[in-house]
Amino acid sequence: MTLVRVDPLHAQRPLHGVAASRAIEAAAQAALPAHTLMQRAGLAVARLALAVAPHAERVWVAAGPGNNGGDGLEAALQLRRFGKPVSVTIYGAAQRTPADAALSLQRAQAAGVPIEEPPALQRGDLAIDALLGLGARSIAHTPLAAAVEALNRVACPVLAIDLPSGLAADTGQPLGGPVVNATHTVSLLTLKPGLYTGAGRDHTGVIWFDDLAVDSSAAPPDARLSGGADALQPLPMRRHVQHKGSFGDVVVVGGAHGMLGAALLAARAAHAAGAGRVYLDLLDASLAHDATRPELMFRAGWWKSTPAHLGAATVLAGCGGGSSVREALAPLVAHTRRLVLDADALNAIASDQTLRRQLQGRAPRERLTLLTPHPLEAARLLDTSAAAVQQDRLHAAHELCHRYRCGIVLKGSGSIVCVPGRMPLINPSGDAKLASAGSGDVLAGWIAGYWAQDDEASLEKLVRVVAASVFRHGLAAERASTTPLRAGDLIEAMRGL
Q1: How far is CA 258 from the centre of its chain?
Q2: Contact, 141 vs 177, CB < 8 A?
Q3: What pLDDT was estimated at residue 1?
């Protein structure tokens, strides 16, 4: 058994949803003596409780009627053996208690663990959430909902077992009713996708993981955490013999009347990411110079160039494009070799069947495309609602990949990077400092600038470029000292990493 804190800088871990976790659990239970996993889980939780609250004068376990409650009872038993004052309150119907959890209740009672009403906890105490596990359903208007609310009222830290009660393991969305706001979460056997996307990161606190000494090869993961140390490798090393033409050209097509700033931010980000030359094709040609970044070059009407010219650059279209970008999309979709579509370009494609079909036809011609929607743009592309996208972000990203045959960055808390035929990645970095106008333009521009520097045109390379860019984007925000973070400052923060 190995208990580790999951550090986003060294993440790159597999994420298993409910079905995969159940398969791994079943394989382990078939190979181990009865009750072994629950005892291992209880010991892992107890050890973590001692580590995060070593001076707690009282530990309270809120236990549900299922196996999550059994894990909590085993933890209480171990804490009692370690000399900690601990008590358990059991919620839910006892007749639904599984055999393992019933045995843990007997063991805890035999060890002298009191089963009683919730105690009055002080700031230095510890509460353990053992209410709901993988098989949880909606708890609205039930005694378990009242227990969740009681946990959310305590003044002391809360340690959640496996995932905060009320949170869906697959999607990171509330199951219906309240969700525990944990200070720490220890995910057992497998790490779950819902801890890292949707509302998950708002409820989990510090995430820990213990595999309970079980091999997870019985079921493939549903996703992986992206990031890791390789995401922050320095930008590509440059040889003395190289020149600006060695690092690719980026063209930003966007910036309609009144929205020039989005295109400027994207171009500045592409330049900061290391593209050799960055051009701006502004749809409102009233601006022909960037006084802040005079390195940027302006080429009005570039999108009307010859197919060979269009195919030579990495193109980012849509930032601040308004309705004007629609006309430029047909030749860009037809001829560019590497294409990033953001913002108004996505809205244009969502409302134009011809553009949709053209976009779907790029992959068979070995043209690489990346779409970078936020949930509302994704909803338009999928003919659904933003709420439906958020309800299952992994599924939405898969569906976008399948429908458009493109790479996808579904932005939001736990941004998802997905390309056809590959396992999706969930990004663990970032925070609400990114909830500021222009931050998405910066991300799209950085991706384009980073991508332009490599001659390799493959989905594998696209995944690496995009995952590293998304991780850097989020980490720069986390490390910034101001909230919200202005998009122009975000560019420099990303470059500074």
Answers
A1: 32
A2: yes
A3: 64
Question: 422-472 pLDDT, tens per residue?
Answer: 999 999 999 999 999 999 999 999 999 999 998 777 888 899 999 999 999
Backbone angles phi, psi at 420, to 5 degrees: -60, 135
CA torsion angle for 319, 322, 323, 327 (degrees, to 10)? -30
Query: Residue 95: its pLDDT value, please?
Result: 61
Structure token digits, residue 23 = 């398969």
Domain 243-496 = CATH 3.40.1190.20: yes
pTM as predicted: 0.95
State the CB neighbour count (10 A cutoff) for residue 235: 14
What residue has token string 């090869």? 217
Return all residues near 167 (Cβ < 8 A) that are at least 6 apart.
Answer: 173, 174, 175, 179, 180, 194, 199, 200, 203, 204
Answer yes or no: are the C-beta atoms of 270 and 278 closer than 8 Å.
Answer: yes
The vertex-215 CA angle with 181 and 422, nearest 5°, equals 75
Domains in the chain: boundaries: 3-225, 243-496
The answer to whether 3-225 and 243-496 have equal CATH topology is no
Q: Which of the following CATH numbers is that of domain 3-225: 3.40.50.300, 3.40.50.10260, 3.40.50.1820, 3.10.20.310?
A: 3.40.50.10260
Judge contact between 127 and 159, C-beta under 8 A.
yes
Model pLDDT, residue 230? 65
| The pLDDT value given to residue 285 | 86
Beta bridge partners of 15: 223
Cβ distance 64 to 144 under 8 Å? yes
Query: What is the rounded distance in angstroms from the CA atom of residue 53 to the CA atom of residue 79?
Result: 12
Q: Which residues of the chain register pLDDT less than 50?
A: none
Residue with tokens 């910036």: 255
